[in-house]
Amino acid sequence: MEKSTTDFDTFKDEISDSFFFQIHRMKRTIFRRTNALMNEAGITLQLEQLPLIMILQRKNLSQRELSDMTMRDKSSILRSINALEKKNLVEVQKDEDDKRKNVVSLTEEGIKLAKNIRTLMKKSEDEVLSVFSAKERIEALETIKGYADKLDVL
């Protein structure tokens, strides 16, 4: 029995030293708080639908472009778009220049929701990061952004 406890402790130590695990811990905390705020506000979106709403707030895109931007397969994107369309948050229209493309855009209701979510995300970020000093927040953001920028070239 002692051996399994030691094996578990070794595994626990190894994973706690993992960069990916620590990033996941941070992400989990931020998502948990954001989800709580969204639930309190009565927003019922599935996690995979959220990026679509936020991306479409900036620009109307084709289903293919959404697939590429979110790194999700076309069928997954289509399911999310269909669900959002049923909630009257997005509309899909044929591209005027290329009839093979469907362009997705937010409805007025979708635009209002996106603004509300943006406010909640900012509030969540402020709450979660309140454990850091202003200087630590700036340094952390610069460091994480630098890592993300370097990884984008892979």
Q: Gist?
A:
Helices cover 69% and strands 8% of the residues.
Keywords:
154 residues; mainly alpha; Arc Repressor Mutant, subunit A; three-stranded antiparallel β-sheet; 7 helices
Question: How are the SSEs placed, and which strands pair?
Answer:
Elements: H1 2-16, H2 19-40, H3 50-58, E1 61-62, H4 63-70, H5 74-86, E2 90-94, E3 102-106, H6 108-128, H7 134-151
Antiparallel strand pairs: 1-3, 2-3
Helix pairs in contact: 2-6, 4-5
Overview of this structure, please?
It is a single chain. By secondary structure, this protein is mostly helical. It is 69% helix and 8% strand. It has a three-stranded antiparallel sheet with strand order 1-3-2. Strand 2 and strand 3 form a beta hairpin. Helix 4 crosses helix 5. The N and C termini lie far apart (44 Å).
Integer count of domains: 1
- As a percent range, the share of strand residues is 5-15%
How far apart are the termini? 44 Å
State the low-pLDDT regions, or none: none
Reported for the largest beta sheet, the result is: 3 strands, antiparallel
What's the CATH class label?
Mainly Alpha
CATH architecture: Orthogonal Bundle
Average pLDDT level: 88
Rg value: 20 Å
> What's the CATH superfamily, by name?
Winged helix-like DNA-binding domain superfamily/Winged helix DNA-binding domain
Structural class: mainly alpha
Side by side, the strands of the main sheet go: 1-3-2
Number of strands: 3
Secondary structure: helix percent: 55-70%
CATH T-level topology: Arc Repressor Mutant, subunit A
Question: Which series of helices and strands comes N to C?
Answer: HHHEHHEEHH
The number of distinct helices, counting runs of at least 4 residues, comes to 7
> Can you tell me the overall shape?
globular
